Amino acid sequence: MCGIVGYWSKTGADASVVARMATKIQHRGPDDAGVWLNGEGDLALAHRRLSIIDLTPAGHQPMISPCGRFTLTYNGEIYNHQDLRTELEDEDGHFDWRGHSDTETLLAALRHWGVEEALQRVNGMFAFALWDNAERSLFLARDRMGEKPLYYGRNGDVFLFGSELKSLAAHPGWAGIVDRDALTLYMRHNTVPTPWSIYKGINKLPPAHYVIIRKGGASVSEPQCYWDLAKIATNSRAESEGTPEELTDELNNLLLDAVGRRMAADVPLGAFLSGGFDSTTVAALMQAQSARPVKTFTIGFHEKGYNEAVYAKAVAKHLGTDHTELYVTPEEAMAVIPRLPTLWDEPFSDSSQIPTLLVSQLARQHVTVSLSGDGGDELFCGIAAILRVIRFGKNCVGYQRLYGICWGGYCRRLRARH
């Protein structure tokens, strides 16, 4: 992952201030850093880079378009960026690429097609800020499923945005007043839901939305949706075309393609493996497309009721992965707790954050990027639906309908994401 941050102030921006804000999220991007100020000196953008594709300076950010009109700071990966390059070359024919980073591809797409159309074409996880010098407008956008975070809002006379709240809090004018309504929502939902944040005046940009900021940060548009998950989910409820076997084959092909696209990297790659449906599927699809054993990582616990490492080990043996596991004592798990407030910028009541941090630390010793099964329950209508299919089989009442919702519906959603 990388990190982005910036601010727009009528009284002027300071390179040292935005650099200090970016340093607060250095953990997101330890490989490189960049700062950029516009010609008027009132807008500052910064970037922290974790180099994954194109490790050369050609991927440095913030990145300026060849025409000088646009400047981009971006966090994420564009999985179809090679396809987009081909489309851009076919339509324009004279692109002079400086490198092979997906950042350069995204910037070219935004310049050539405009923000709205480019967002329709992009397949990836991302959060970005794009400055249009001709229109003196700042665009903030987030990927369809909201995999990459993006906070934004006004703090006094200053407009702020960033990947994490701690970077915004590093601005000298930061107020940091807790929003009591957001705190109430946290007490109800165990998290602060989008579009709120724990601080007054600062919002999370909803997934699949973008906003336009003008007039020195004084004018902020309402979030504009460019992809509607509700419509996709509603349409998928209709009876799916094809037999269960045909839908299964289509699902397998879509997942192979999706996982294969995410394996593109110029750095070592691995996978988190718990032994459950989601991570097992991802690891299996990775291994099916890898010429060498995939590196997989698992955290285990000595308490049998909480330990999934035995299942992960069995899966790893079956798949032939290069497996690493680490058994954690209660004392080691509890030692993580004092660090949590430094990692999460607002309340977050999910106990899985502890093993997730531990397995991330374990994996980072061996690889730079790891795939996981997070999001599987959401896309497959929950684990209960899958277990029902497995338990009752094809002869159960409502199987075709359930199969259509889970498998066929997922195919439709996955096609839409592509």
Ordered list of secondary-structure elements with their pairings:
Layout lengths: L2 E7 L5 H9 L8 E6 L5 E7 L13 E2 L5 E9 L2 H11 L10 H12 L1 H7 L2 E9 L4 E6 L8 E5 L2 E5 L2 H4 L11 H10 L12 E3 L4 E6 L4 E2 L3 E2 L3 H7 L8 H19 L6 E4 L4 H12 L6 E7 L7 H11 L2 E7 L1 H5 L5 H4 L9 H12 L4 E3 L4 H4 L3 H10 L6 H19 L1
Parallel strand pairs: 14-15, 14-17, 15-16
Antiparallel strand pairs: 1-3, 1-9, 2-3, 4-5, 5-6, 6-7, 7-11, 8-9, 8-10, 11-12, 11-13
- Give the proportion of residues in helices: 25-40%
Outline the low-pLDDT stretches: 394-414
Number of strands: 17
| Tally of DSSP helical segments | 16
Judged by helices, strands and strand pairing, the structural class is alpha+beta
- Beta-strand percentage? 15-25%
CATH superfamily placement of the largest domain: Aminohydrolase, N-terminal nucleophile (Ntn) domain
Described by strand count, sense and barrel closure, the largest sheet is: 7 strands, antiparallel
Radius of gyration: 22 Å
Can you characterise this structure?
The chain folds into 2 domains: 3-227, Aminohydrolase, N-terminal nucleophile (Ntn) domain (Glutamine Phosphoribosylpyrophosphate, subunit 1, domain 1, 4-Layer Sandwich), CATH 3.60.20; 230-417, Rossmann fold (3-Layer(aba) Sandwich), CATH 3.40.50.620. It is 37% helix and 22% strand. The protein contains 16 helices and 17 strands. It has helices spanning 15-23, 81-91, 102-113, 115-121, 165-168, 180-189, 229-235, 244-262, 277-288, 309-319, 330-334, 340-343, 353-364, 376-379, 383-392, 399-417, and strands at residues 3-9, 32-37, 43-49, 63-64, 70-78, 124-132, 137-142, 151-155, 158-162, 202-204, 209-214, 219-220, 224-225, 269-272, 295-301, 322-328, 369-371. Strands 4, 5, 6, 7, 11, 12 and 13 form a 7-stranded antiparallel beta sheet that branches. The chain has a 6-stranded antiparallel beta sheet with strand order 2-3-1-9-8-10. A hairpin with a 4-residue loop joins strand 11 (209-214) and strand 12. The model is unreliable at 394-414 (pLDDT under 50).
